[in-house]
């Protein structure tokens, strides 16, 4: 196929279930002839904080620091720090970006949130106007592969945590779709820690199987009703 995939991976332990899911994705996609790049955020010691260190040139307003404004200006002038630029290049080249992470507080781990804060800046991922369907990353696919602590029953409309689609809204809609990505259905591996060895093998197998035909998938509808019902 010659497709390019970026896996943004946020887990501290290579032998973890997240690590295994990442490995499965690399192997399955590589076998198809895809070029797979992995950004292993913890191994890279990726800086999650959005600070003035992200701008290598002079600030446009040194008096009062506004990160959004300065990152936008620096993006236009090519004065963003190299770790951001490196990640932007990987995103730019990718046909599909897979985010592999454990759910922390209904969201992403801090290191991955920092990747989103710093890498998806105005001027690179979107502009105003130039967001949602006209976001700059349109034409690319994105997919969240998430592991949870809670069981599938907990993440239902009647469950104690509510429908899992609720926590997908800020990530899939407010972040990925905002930047123009077409979002594929999430891969959620519920409660691998409490699952049996057999169940964990099944989760890995279903991920591998899904990736076999991933390029044929239709993105989910980018509308509030998909998340919150009619």
Structure description:
By secondary structure, the chain is α/β, with parallel strands linked by helices. It has one domain (4-228): Flavodoxin domain (Rossmann fold). The protein contains 8 helices and 6 strands. Strands 1, 2, 3, 4, 5 and 6 form a 6-stranded parallel β-sheet that branches. Strand 1, helix 1 (17-31) and strand 2 (35-40) form a beta-alpha-beta unit. Helix 1 packs parallel to helix 7. The longest helix is centred in the C-terminal third of the chain and has 16 residues, at 197-212. It is globular. It starts with a strand and ends with a helix. The model has no long low-confidence stretch (mean pLDDT 97). Belongs to the NAD(P)H dehydrogenase (quinone) family. This is Ribosyldihydronicotinamide dehydrogenase [quinone]. Its main location: cytoplasm. Homodimer. Keywords: Cytoplasm, FAD, Flavoprotein, Metal-binding, Oxidoreductase, Phosphoprotein, Zinc.
């Amino acid at each position: 196929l010659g497709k390019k995939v970026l896996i943004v991976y946020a887990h501290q332990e290579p032998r973890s279930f997240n690590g295994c899911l990442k490995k499965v994705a690399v192997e399955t996609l590589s076998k198809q002839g895809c070029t797979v790049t992995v950004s292993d955020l913890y191994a890279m010691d990726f800086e999650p904080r959005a600070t003035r260190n992200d701008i290598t040139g002079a600030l446009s307003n040194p008096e009062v620091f506004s990160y959004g404004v300065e990152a936008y200006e620096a993006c236009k002038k090519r004065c963003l720090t190299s770790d951001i630029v490196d990640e932007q290049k990987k995103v730019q080249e990718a046909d599909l970006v897979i985010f592999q992470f454990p759910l922390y507080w209904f969201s992403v781990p801090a290191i991955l949130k920092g990747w989103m804060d710093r890498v998806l800046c105005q001027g690179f991922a979107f502009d105003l106007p130039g967001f949602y369907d006209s976001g700059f990353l349109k034409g690319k696919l994105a997919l969240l592969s998430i592991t949870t602590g809670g069981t599938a029953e907990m993440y239902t409309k009647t469950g104690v945590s509510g429908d899992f689609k609720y926590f997908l809204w800020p990530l899939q809609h407010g972040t990925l779709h905002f930047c123009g990505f077409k979002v594929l259905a999430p891969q959620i591996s519920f409660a691998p820690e409490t699952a049996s060895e057999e169940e964990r093998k099944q989760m890995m197998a279903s991920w591998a199987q899904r990736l076999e035909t991933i390029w044929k998938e239709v993105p989910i509808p980018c509308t509030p009703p998909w998340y919150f019902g009619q």
